[in-house]
Write a structure and sequence with these properties.
This is RNA polymerase sigma-70 factor, sigma-E family. InterPro entries: RNA_pol_sigma-70-like, RNA_pol_sigma-70_dom, RNA_pol_sigma-E_actinobac, RNA_pol_sigma70_r2, RNA_pol_sigma70_r4_t2, RNA_pol_sigma_r2, RNA_pol_sigma_r3/r4-like, WH-like_DNA-bd_sf. Keywords: DNA-binding, Sigma factor, Transcription, Transcription regulation. Belongs to the sigma-70 factor family. ECF subfamily. This protein has 2 domains: about 10-90, no CATH class; about 100-175, Arc Repressor Mutant, subunit A, CATH 1.10.10.10. The chain contains 9 helices and no strands. The chain has helices at about 10-30, 30-45, 50-55, 60-80, 105-115, 120-130, 135-145, 145-160, 170-175. Helix 1 (about 10-30) packs across helix 4 (about 60-80) and helix 6 crosses helix 8.
Length: about 180
């Protein structure tokens, strides 16, 4: 069986943007292995159409690739793809997409754990707006919803995060 030719520019795009895609996927899934699967699946879906994607996006295919990644992420949830549970305690991955746990401040670690508790729509809106630094309009386009939905999803997410016990700050410690 002969391997199909790689479309021009695809390898360069993956080399340049792969880490950022993996970070976004990790923020969405909260799990390194699922993040890798999500990026790989999204890129596999984009690959056959790469020539058109690269041509139609003026050399900036990030929005299209993110859209495929988000669509795949939501499809996995609908199909209950994530219903696998390990039967034993697994070791922590050593090459996680996120920073090494020992290098992360306690607050940031707590923020990532709290982010993982949000419903997937709210989490996707927050990740796109505040981690990917997209505008409300760009996030709405990627998620296929209105700008108002992005605003309300983010507002609800922040209300939840404000009351998360992981993120509550001891008032006495603030005034010392």
């Amino acid at each position: 069986m002969e391997r199909a030719a790689v479309p021009p520019g695809f390898d360069d795009y993956v080399a340049a943007r792969g880490h950022d895609l993996l970070r976004t996927a990790w923020l969405l899934t909260g799990d390194h292995q699922r993040a890798e699967d999500l990026v790989q699946t999204a890129l596999a879906k984009v690959w056959p159409h790469w020539s058109r994607v690269a041509r139609d996006s003026d050399g900036r295919p990030d929005a299209y690739v993110r859209k495929v990644m988000l669509t795949t992420y939501f499809a996995w949830w609908r199909r209950r793809w994530n219903a696998e549970y390990p039967t034993e305690v697994l070791p922590e991955p050593t090459n996680a997409a996120g920073p090494a746990p020992e290098d992360v401040t306690e607050l940031r670690r707590d923020l990532l754990v709290a982010l993982a508790t949000l419903p997937r729509g709210q989490r996707a809106a927050v990740v796109l707006r505040y981690f990917e630094d997209l505008t409300e309009a760009q996030a709405a386009e990627l998620l296929g919803c209105s700008v108002g939905t992005i605003k309300s999803q983010c507002a609800r997410a922040f209300a939840t995060l404000r009351h998360s016990p992981l993120l509550l700050v001891d008032e006495g410690a603030r005034h010392d």
